[in-house]
Amino acid sequence: MMLTIKRLRVYLLVTAVIAAIGVYGVVRATDAHAASGCTGSLIEKQTATRNAQAIFELQVYYNSSTGMNCAVALHRGVTYGKAYPTQVYIIACVETSPSNQCRTRTLVADPPSADVSKYGNWSYLAGPVSVYGRGRCIHAEADMRYDALGPHLATAGAATHCG
Q: N or C: which terminal CB in the chain sees fewer CB atoms within 10 Å?
C-alpha cells in the first residue's frame, strides 16, 4: 500500500512537471510572433546593430487570408525596455509590381501623424501598423533615435512584396 502511494505521488509530480514544461514551451514558441501584434507570415526582417549587438528590428508580415500587410519596429538587446524615440510606418503603394518608387496610396504610421518625422517614446515597440496590400506593392520603414546614426531601417526596395 505504501509503495503504491509513493508511486502515485511520483506519477502526479512527473505529470505536473511535464504539463508545466509543455505549457511553457507553447507560450515561449509563440511569444515572438504575439509580441509583434501582427498576424500572418513574416516576409521580411531588417535588423540594426551596434557593436555587433542587435538593437532594433523592422518586421513585415503578410496575411494571405485577409490581404493585410503589417509592420512593427521592435527594440532589441540594450534598447529593450528602455524608452527611445521610435516610429514605424507602412505604405500601400500605387504600384502593382516591384519598382524603385512607391507612390503612396495609403500610409499608416505609429505614432499616428501625417508628419512621419514625429516619434513616440516607446520602450518595446512601435506599431503594429497595417494596410490592405492585396494586389499592390508595399513599403515599410522604421526609425529609432538611439544615437547620431539612427538607426533607420527600410524594406528592401521602394515598392516591394507585391501581390
A: N
Asked if the bond preceding 112 is cis, omega within 30° of 0, the reply is: no
Averages of pLDDT over runs of 10 residues in the chain (163 residues) are: 46 39 31 66 92 92 95 93 90 93 86 61 88 93 83 84 86
Inter-residue contact 103 to 95 (CB < 8 Å): yes
The answer to whether 47 touches 56, Cβ cutoff 8 Å, is yes
Note whether 61 and 42 are within 8 A (CB).
yes
What pLDDT was estimated at residue 115? Answer: 55
Task: For residues 31 and 39, give the distance between their C-alpha atoms in angstroms, rounded to a whole number.
Answer: 13
Cell of 93: 503603394
Strand spans (E) along 2-124: 41-50, 53-63, 68-75, 84-93, 104-110, 120-122
Contact 86, 74 (CB under 8 A): no
φ/ψ of 11, rounded to 5, equals -60, -45
Q: Among 69, 86, 74, which Cα is nearest to 160's?
A: 69
CA dihedral 31, 35, 37, 42 (to 10 degrees): -70
Q: Report how far apart the first and last C-alpha atoms of the chain are (Å, whole number).
A: 68
